[in-house]
Amino acid sequence: MTFVVKIIEHQMQPQRKIIHVDMDAFYASVEQLDNPGLRGKAIAVGGGHRGVVAAASYEARKFGVRSAMPSKTAKEKCPHLIFVKPRFQRYKEISNKIRNIFHEYTDLVEPLSLDEAYLDVTENKKDIESANDIAREIRKRIFEETGLTASAGISVNKFLAKVASDINKPNGQKTIHPTKINEFLENLPIEKFYGVGKVTANKMHTLHIFKGSDLKAKTLEQLEGLFGKSGRYYYNVVRGIHNGEVKPNRIQKSVAVERTFWDDINEDEEIDEKLKSLSQELEERLGRKEIQGKTLMLKIKYKDFSLYTRSKTQELYFENAEKFYKTAKQLWELRPFNKAIRLLGLSLSNLNTEEKKQVSVQLKIPFEEFDND
Fold first, then answer.
1. 290 and 239: one domain?
2. Annotated catalytic residue, options 31, 59, 110, 116
3. CA pair distance 30, 241, nearest whole angstrom
4. Does 116 qualify as catalytic in the annotation?
5. What is the domain range of residue 51?
6. CB within 8 A of 335, min separation 6: which ones?
7. Which of 42, 89, 256, 293 is the most buried (most CB within 10 A)?
8. pTM, entire model
9. 344 and 258: one domain?
10. How far apart are CA 10 and CA 12, in angstroms?
11. Closest C-alpha to 319, from 299, 348, 345, 278
């Protein structure tokens, strides 16, 4: 009886219209937008003579250059690759413009990062019936107002929208209509499932799971035995079941700032300067969001990539950049090694946001028909 009730409850849940918007090679595209001399060329944001690639242009991707790839490997794959220093303030500036566009259509916007977000447009401010039309209009607005292109995925839940947004990249969109969900998922290569990483995909391949239909053939018990708690997630999503709501008011649990240096640093004056700069930036971020915290953590990544963190918690909230700096200096003095570092970071947690109750309202309205695309 319980099983039957659960099926009925699932069927009675109103289908939503979810859009996942993903900017195309965002950091690299911004650099090419601002510097016409870089347009049409293979560029990588970050990296340089050391470090890793933060983002790669589509021209660089043709040679196999990917984000998180060591710069040395990227240069080997693409000898004419141009490295560009990241400008995160500029990326944030454009990201804010894009989010303002989103909010003209719906208040149910859940940013995942600077360059992607979920939008619930089941009910929208412009009373546009077709989610597909909304996505197309948003992409057009983004291009007109920023000069950048975006891709979009449209379907009945976040999982499907996320998968769909990658189908027609760059500068395209894909709708997975409710009547096409099963067919789409059964034919989808397993490595294309959001939440299936490279290691898991390789394990699935050894189990002769190559596409959705192979995954769907496994029972819940089999998947939980093979993949633990993730087994239930795989069992559900291959059947198009994903009930996560778009959450515009996520409770923020920490705020962080960090810097990866072009060259390793080890001089006291340099360290002092960087800690002051990070403290000031952290204060600015907190001020804009009216956030306070009681736990400050210092993050150090050394030249050999070893990582060290140390934190301090106090009864009262940290007040300003001066307090951040003084505490960061104390934590710095406690470091176990006196060797060159490649990254410094400060983060504040134990925030006042965790004391505030968040109210989420799910819209209960009928699902309007999608357009096919």
1. no
2. 116
3. 36
4. yes
5. 27-87
6. 300, 308, 310
7. 293
8. 0.71
9. yes
10. 5
11. 348
